[in-house]
Structure prediction request, 726 residues.
Amino acid sequence: MDGQKNQQKNSMHVMSGIHSTHDGMGQATRKQFRKSQKNEISVDDFSREIRQGSRLHLAKAITLLESTVSADKRAGQRLLQELLPHTGNSIRIGITGVPGAGKSTFIEAFGKFLCDEGFKVAVLAIDPSSTISGGSILGDKTRMEELVRHENAFIRPSPTAGTLGGVHKKSRETMLLCEAAGYDVILIETVGVGQSETIVRGMVDFFLLLVLTGAGDELQGMKKGIMELADLIIVHKADGDNAKMAKKTVAEYQQILHFLQPASPGWTTKAIPASSKDYVGIEETWQIICSFKDTLMKSGFFIERRQSQTKDWFHTMIVDRLMDQFYEQPHTKTTVKSLEAEILKGNKTVSQAIEQLFLDNKS
Amino acid sequence: MDGQKNQQKNSMHVMSGIHSTHDGMGQATRKQFRKSQKNEISVDDFSREIRQGSRLHLAKAITLLESTVSADKRAGQRLLQELLPHTGNSIRIGITGVPGAGKSTFIEAFGKFLCDEGFKVAVLAIDPSSTISGGSILGDKTRMEELVRHENAFIRPSPTAGTLGGVHKKSRETMLLCEAAGYDVILIETVGVGQSETIVRGMVDFFLLLVLTGAGDELQGMKKGIMELADLIIVHKADGDNAKMAKKTVAEYQQILHFLQPASPGWTTKAIPASSKDYVGIEETWQIICSFKDTLMKSGFFIERRQSQTKDWFHTMIVDRLMDQFYEQPHTKTTVKSLEAEILKGNKTVSQAIEQLFLDNKS
Prediction:
């Protein structure tokens, strides 16, 4: 936890809640939401603490939302509902890049610059791969060492258990909580695995792609269409002997970008060199983001995109829920598997398999 | 209908079926599937006619599959089931391009070349836009004038009514019927609207993108990521004054392709100039496709892709069906609409809206 210094009154038993369970609030903390008992804080109090900048309460609230315990989740939702009018005031920035592109050193440098400028910065991470590796993207304590200690920063790794859809949902709501807590800039970091970039693109205003010199070579390892998601391409590690090569790479990317569709209508995706080590391109990145927001606010697309992102999210959740309900039914999974095998053997048409599947599920 | 010359015995009342209704077989034809009545052909007979090359029966069978009448659809499915062991032996080629890129003149030239070589060629079209415009992509009788008359060719416009998902399903099954009828090459034409290219990419082996000279300018009008779907980019109308410019455009595309992920693992997407007028690049296109098939058969990806396409189709159909069932319930559409409005106003979190929606639907 990075919010220790902000300990406030009433937070002691919240603390105990944190320590008692990791994936849930625990009964003791949950009870705090019942106004009947004294010395326990209500949703109102909790939400006020968050709005007043208690990182401890913010962390706690995120844990509630992420919990697999129904009562915790409900408490988290009530809290979010309460805070909803105070959300939406940040700029939401997605950051992706190939492994080794230096995402965390960039976030450290960029985040520190913003914090020093007086902005409150929240860093969230979406890492679908760590479900497999078992490690968390931000678990490495040496990452973002200085940013972690900055009083204006809040760093939160996403829980990696569960489906990507789940991460999706929780990260969005975490983002909203951070906004209610007064964070001006939300940085959402993701690695190029599965659908994570598309999901992150679907919840941010601005999308930033970090690459290395020698365009093309390392893009081979990236997902298709990644460049067309980006509002800015940063050729990172443009320092020392690499600086000249970075310039050339920037020119190459600019040329490619000319042929691609821009990620945001009315905005020309840019490519710039940057070095977190030599502090090159850090302030420029922020200027570009500000000019982006300006341009898209004027055209109306900024608001339009946010609204359509929210709508898409709702409709994705409907599909997710329908799929969950469907596969929760007894035997559905095995029936689907065996029908799939029949189809692949050429024994059944897909249409027939569908008819059989939905007939079986009715009876 | 282009299959008149192949009239066979027993086809007379099939003909009357064609004329009686457009979106269904009509009661008379449907009865042919009941073996009890004499002078009527059974599924067995019907499937034999198709396999023997009757374009009339093929056209009729497609109409059955496309029908909105349940009995017709069932008959079509029984027929497809019967024919399933005879499918899969064609090369499936998707063709897309910006409006004005000359898709139909290219298909005419390419299709005629293939027919003259002795291949049987089926041309299907997917045009989601014509639902709005009301016109069919192949409705214009002047298109593919010569190919239409070739004895080795079968041209079938897709029905454009209904959802793209529906077109998707029908086009796949139409493709299978054409394969059972002995067509060696299936050309699936689509226009760059909505999800149609992605859907077509999901059902073909090879995907061909037609562009014009001056790369970049006309790509602005195309969907994002379209180049990363293509196994071959043809710079079309490379004739007369345009020939030199086409060469330059080819070089530009080759350069961009170097930075993009190839559509098919183990295959380097190529760019070539072509002219349907001057018969340039037509045979080369076929050579490239043959070399593509060779390469991917050796690596195993050819079969692997087909199997994963079939699996994806099955799973897409499950989602489609679940969505249909969900929205068929009374009030669902209006509830979703009003919840969406609540969310956008900031009165509800998405999670709360989901809970309410699925609670309402249960009760």
Notes: The longest strand of chain A covers residues 91-97.
